[in-house]
Automatic annotation (TrEMBL):
This is DNA replication and repair protein RecF. One of its GO terms (molecular function) is single-stranded DNA binding. Belongs to the RecF family. InterPro entries: DNA-binding_RecF, DNA-binding_RecF_CS, P-loop_NTPase, RecF/RecN/SMC_N, RecF_2. GO terms for biological process: DNA replication; DNA synthesis involved in DNA repair; double-strand break repair; SOS response. Keywords: ATP-binding, Cytoplasm, DNA damage, DNA repair, DNA replication, DNA-binding, Nucleotide-binding, SOS response. CDD domains: ABC_RecF (cd03242).
Length: 373
């Protein structure tokens, strides 16, 4: 897969951009706050429908403007794909594929696959469980676009069930009457989300272990496990839903007291251990970085295995965070095959061979100039 071009209109600090990407490696260099991350964010948005930095489209549309346009031309094994996204402050998005408006955004997912790695990802190991859940979801959205609607449906049911649990005007009898319906909906929508997360981690684990051994020199034993609140002994849908229903029954009194849902994939954890010890609390900074790098490289391999296309790699200001050994591992893994866009404030951080084979573009106040301009 190759991202041939990117066009932006009134997106963040870009009034107008038409960028042709011709080499496998592009380095975007510029001072802080010039628009480097904004450009990668636009690519991420086309790949996953989400931004890791913005919660609302309003933040993505240039201040004072009504709407943004983000478009790309992607070369895939099956042919060239034109993707287009219109973002509006406070309104629905429009998604076009080959010029045709799609009914839902999910229909335009899966055409551009990318792995993003930024300094925020260093929180993948030490951050809150939500960070790891978001990471899994971001991969699943690309692997199986239908996951977008599975997750959205679950979150909607969760939201409505929480609203019910918070109601103060209901008698306990009235609540007890209404809850079983919501329990059924919650467990029914929770099950496909959890089964997909579980399967994803089973596939990611050996790949991440391979990279971890390569980077750490095989000295440590890394394990990664899905840790939902229920035992995943039997993973067929019926067993998972049954286990969730039983747990809900146990927690019901507590849920009513707290006024919130305490069971479901919104409480999932992903456990990362080094030699059996949780990396989150006990890993050194170096160990945590090695882990994150191994997870990202595993993500790259998995996307390629499943889609049959080499995904695009977006490295946002992250090389400076890695020591020379880890940089070498990363650059070695990328090799010549993986189209990579890297942002940096200093070209001095790059390996000279890499620098020679890359196209260097300077970003200044939302404009892109060829190197040296
Ligand atoms: N909706 C928006 N409208 C207009 N400008 C915006 C909008 N959102 C962000 N910006 C501008 O984009 C710039 C930030 O760009 P970006 O996050 O890409 O920085 P960067 O070049 O990656 O720098 P750093 O190295 O600090 O991360 C800021 O100048 C900010 O004011």
């Amino acid at each position: 897969m190759f991202l041939q071009s990117l066009q932006l209109h009134d997106f963040r600090n870009y009034a107008e951009l038409a960028l042709d990407l011709s080499s496998a490696k592009t380095i975007l260099v510029g001072d802080n706050a010039q628009g480097k991350s904004n450009l990668l964010e636009a690519v991420q948005l086309l790949a996953t429908g989400r931004s890791s930095r913005a919660l609302r489209d309003r933040e993505l549309v240039t201040q004072g403007k009504e709407q943004s346009r983000v478009a790309a031309r992607i070369e895939r094994l099956g042919g060239t794909v034109e993707l287009e996204l219109i973002l509006r402050a406070g309104k629905r998005r429009t998604v076009r594929l080959g010029g045709e408006t799609q009914r839902t955004q999910a229909e335009a997912l899966g055409y551009l696959n990318c792995v993003s790695f930024s300094s925020i990802d260093l929180d993948l190991v030490r951050g809150a469980p939500e960070t790891r859940r978001d990471w899994l979801d971001g991969i699943l959205l690309q692997l199986e676009p239908i996951y977008t609607s599975l997750l959205a449906q679950y979150l909607q049911v969760l939201h409505q069930r929480n609203a019910l649990l918070r109601r103060t005007d209901l008698s306990s009898e009235a609540l007890a009457e209404q809850l079983p319906l919501w329990d059924d909906l919650l467990t029914r929508h929770a099950t496909p989300v959890m089964r997909r997360r579980h399967r994803l981690l089973l596939r990611l684990a050996p790949l991440a272990q391979h990279w971890h051994r390569a980077i750490s020199g095989g000295r440590e034993n890394f394990a990664i496990h899905y840790q939902p609140q229920i035992a995943f002994e039997r993973e067929d849908a019926q067993s998972v839903q049954q286990a969730l229903t039983e747990l809900l029954a146990q927690k019901q009194a507590l849920e009513v007291r707290r006024g919130t849902s305490l069971v479901g994939p919104h409480r999932d954890e992903v456990e990362l251990t080094i030699d059996g010890i949780p990396a989150r609390q006990f890993g050194s900074q170096g160990q945590q970085r090695t882990l994150v790098l191994a997870l990202k490289l595993a993500e790259l391999n998995l996307l390629e295995q499943v889609t049959g296309e080499v995904p695009l790699l977006l490295l946002d200001d992250v090389l400076a965070e890695l020591d020379l050994h880890r940089q070498d591992q990363l650059l070695g893994a990328i090799g010549e095959r993986v189209q990579t866009i890297v942002t940096t404030t200093h070209l001095g951080l790059f390996d000279s061979q890499w620098l020679h084979s890359a196209t260097v573009l300077t970003i200044k106040q939302g404009q892109v100039h060829p190197d040296g301009a």
